[in-house]
Specification:
heterodimer; A: alpha/beta; Aspartate Aminotransferase, domain 2; 2 domains; three-stranded antiparallel beta sheet; 12 strands; B: 163 residues; alpha+beta; Alpha-Beta Plaits; two-stranded antiparallel ribbon; 6 strands; 31% helix; extended; binds pyridoxal-5'-phosphate
Chain lengths: 393, 163
């Protein structure tokens, strides 16, 4: 008989070294519990608008189930570039400056792999989405963390960024509107960053997946700043704005050189994004504006409700200007983020995500998604109010 | 339109019972300001009416609804308005609409039984001078009423926690 073996020894070191995601751990704690109210989701609670789903269904009935161009359906790339021109006056060439991907997730992975050489330093601004550090690590790069702070409403300042830049720095990953803080950055604030980018000859990966979800001010694409288009890969997708998370569709826009290089990876790792989702995305861009804006107004009301609610029960919470997350401060309760979130789940059955999951800078905060019904948010706030009262005693 | 007014109208269109306090908790206005705004909207007729959608089937009050299509001839000096007014004064008539296409006016009529509705149409509507012909379609089931789906299929489950 041949000897047994431990298959884990075949797993590459780089993969073994990916730290477990704090969200995964929470997922395990939640599963099996009854009567929970979840503010822990990172996706819209809306269902994909019917006209989009209907178009997907229709395409399936017609039998549109083939591969598409590696770059994605030409009609979709066309609609996207037109949309960006309409919204921001930005000019991207549909045939060479757009790559359709399987969600922003894939776009992020290949963007990082496209620009990072082993040993390159990549600046990651935290608190932020959990995929950035592992993407850089898997590409052999070295993540360098820069923190944003509540005093700056979690916007990135040039002062904070400057000391992190070394002669090994290759790129920076930005994410505004931000998951988990809901922060946005104004044009003036971004200009300061752009100056540093040019001074130090850096490249930018800008994850703008929450582009359409801003309240009271219009999003500023990083690539719309003077001189930034060639230095930026813009990532975006349909998950958040059009409630299409499970359809897995995103895109990258950038210079022909960069997009072509990303396509070199994409063609062998993904071949193309799912055609059904691409067809839905065309419909979303052509006819989805009203429904999308209706959802944004609904988020806006929930945002108002939850932020006021937090402040009423003694959790300081600044007004998030984008995405669908509130990020209340819990540092003055004497509990750490994970203690707070775990006890809140245990004692009141409310799911929130501890802020430190998104980096050390998130310690002392809690990510609460308001992509939930007002009824659920109200119940969650009541229970959290009780929890806070309990802590005071 | 003012963004705040749009918020108020959207909230009330979804839930006519939302109080000024509840509305104020959702937007950047005080309850008093919301109240004043609603009064204005009522006075200008932007808000027409508040109503309740009742599923009478569930209380066993088995109302019968029918959609009636009318072809009418217009008399001199009298437009569609005049005939519409004659018709909408009957409480049995729930809605009256002027339409483009093959016929002119569409009504919904509510009665206690099919016979009830049929007699009402035969006696009160078909006999009007301007009415050329009527065609009655009984409603078998209502799936959606005024934007409200009456029998929503079960909701789908999503992950309670995600990135
Ligand atoms: C900041 C950020 N980027 C990317 C993603 C992933 O998006 P997609 O569904 O397009 O892969 C998410 C999802 O939560 C996100 O919050």
């Amino acid at each position: 008989m041949r000897p047994p073996c431990d298959p884990s020894k075949f797993v590459a070191d780089a993969v073994k070294n990916i730290p477990p995601s704090g969200i995964r751990r929470f997922f395990d704690l939640v599963s099996g519990l009854e009567d929970i109210i979840s503010l822990g989701v990172g996706e819209p609670d809306f269902i994909t608008p019917w006209h989009i789903r209907e178009m997907c269904i229709h395409s399936l009935e017609k039998g549109q189930t083939s591969y598409t161009s590696n770059y994605g359906l030409p009609e979709l790339r066309d609609e996207l570039t037109k949309t960006y021109y309409r919204r921001y006056g930005l000019n991207y060439d549909p045939s060479s400056e757009v790559l359709i991907t399987t969600g922003v997730s894939e776009a992020l992975d290949i963007a990082v792999r496209t620009v990072v050489n082993p040993g390159d330093e990549v600046i990651i601004v935290q608190p932020s989405y959990v995929a950035y550090v592992p993407s850089v690590v898997l590409a052999g790069g070295k993540p360098v963390i820069v923190s944003t702070h509540r005093d700056d409403e979690f916007s990135l300042t040039a002062e904070a960024l400057k000391p992190a830049i070394t002669n090994k720095t290759k790129a920076i990953i930005l994410n505004f509107p931000n998951n988990p803080t809901g922060a946005i950055m104004t044009q003036e604030e971004l200009e300061d960053i752009a100056d540093l980018i040019v001074e130090n000859d850096l490249f930018v990966i800008s994850d703008e997946v929450y582009e359409c979800l801003t309240y009271g001010s219009k999003h500023v694409p990083f690539s719309s700043l003077d001189g930034m288009k060639e230095r930026t890969i813009m990532l975006n997708g349909f998950s958040k704005a059009y409630a299409m998370t499970g359809l897995r569709l995103g895109f990258a826009m950038g210079s022909p050189e960069i997009i072509h290089s990303m396509m070199m990876i994409h063609q062998y790792s993904m071949l193309c994004a799912p055609i059904t989702a691409q067809i839905g995305a065309i419909e979303a861009l052509r006819n989805g504006k009203d429904e999308m804006e209706r959802m944004v107004r609904e988020y806006d009301r929930r945002r108002h409700f939850i932020v006021n609610g937090f402040n009423k029960i003694g959790l300081e919470c600044c007004n998030p200007k984008g995405a669908f997350y509130a990020f209340p401060y819990i540092g003055n309760t004497g509990l750490s983020s994970s203690e707070f979130a775990e006890r809140l789940l245990d004692e009141k059955k409310v799911v929130t995500i501890p802020g430190d999951v998104f980096g050390e800078a998130g310690e002392g905060f809690l990510r609460c998604a308001y992509a939930a019904s007002i009824d659920d948010i109200r119940k969650a706030l009541d229970r959290m109010g009780d929890f806070m009262d309990g802590l005071k005693q | 339109m003012d963004e705040k007014v749009r918020h108020i109208l959207e909230i009330l269109e979804n839930d006519a019972r939302a109080t000024p306090e509840e509305i104020a908790s959702l937007i950047d206005m005080s309850a008093q300001e919301v109240s004043q705004e609603i009064t204005k909207l009522e006075e200008t007729g932007i808000i027409r009416h508040y109503k309740t959608i009742v599923d009478w089937d569930l209380v066993g009050e088995n109302y019968v609804y029918a959609v009636i299509e009318l072809k009418v001839t217009l008399e001199r000096n009298q437009g569609y308005q005049a005939i519409a007014e004659r018709i909408y004064k009957f409480p049995e008539v729930r809605s009256v609409r002027l339409l483009s296409g093959n016929y002119d006016i569409s009504l919904t009529v509510r009665g206690k039984s099919m016979k009830d509705v049929a007699f009402f149409v035969a006696e009160k509507i078909a006999t009007l001078d301007q009415v050329q012909s009527t065609s009655t379609h009984f409603v078998l089931k209502t799936y959606k009423e005024d934007g409200v789906i009456l029998h929503e299929p079960e909701t789908i489950k999503k992950l309670p926690v995600s990135f």
